[in-house]
Specification:
This protein has 167 residues and is of the alpha/beta class. 29% of the residues lie in helices and 19% in strands. It has one domain: Phosphoglycerate mutase-like (Rossmann fold), CATH 3.40.50.1240. The protein contains 4 helices and 6 strands, in the order E-H-E-H-E-H-E-H-E-E.
Length: 167
């Protein structure tokens, strides 16, 4: 069984208009939400074998905050430049290259590509928008990541920061 966790980066700051999109940091809500969502994730999925992240600052910071809460070594996060504003095909290509030794992988990236990719994974659940710091999880009964794209996926859960509060 292989499990994919798609995580949209946490809320970023727009305070400094001179900062490029790629370099935008997290705002205070993002810094609060990421550890909380990692804690909620750990209650559902106790072990993540590999974390992949976009190289954009807000994604890197989100991945690092998740890693810290999940007892995952931050120096083992794999930063993938092609995940910055990636189309759905980039997610599929990355997954096909994953090591079969890793049964559970997390990918931290951006909208609209991450939402578009999530919507391609299962017919059971679709979303108009993955909110910041949301997690969309699916699994497939396969032994190799190369079989993931064509495999039948099982929806596991979709969680996001405001889901707990009802806001």
């Amino acid at each position: 069984m292989k499990t994919i966790l798609l995580v949209r980066h946490a809320k970023s700051s727009w305070d400094d208009p001179a900062v490029s999109d790629f370099e935008r940091p997290l705002n205070s809500r993002g810094l609060r939400d990421a550890p909380e969502m990692a804690k909620r994730l750990q209650q559902r999925i106790p072990s993540i074998h590999r974390i992949y992240s976009s190289t954009a600052q807000r994604a890197r910071l989100t991945a690092g905050l998740f890693a810290e809460k999940l007892d995952y070594r931050s120096d083992e996060i794999v930063f993938e430049p092609e995940l910055y504003l990636a189309p759905p095909r980039a997610f599929a290509d990355l997954i096909a290259r994953c090591s079969d030794a890793d049964d559970c992988i997390m990918i931290v990236a951006h909208n609209p590509g991450i939402t578009d990719f999530a919507n391609q994974l299962t017919r059971a659940v679709r979303t108009d928008n993955m909110p910041t710091c949301s997690i969309f999880a699916v699994s497939a009964h396969i032994n190799s990541w190369t079989a993931f794209q064509g495999a039948l996926k099982e929806f596991l859960f979709f969680d996001y920061p405001k889901a707990a509060t009802g806001n």
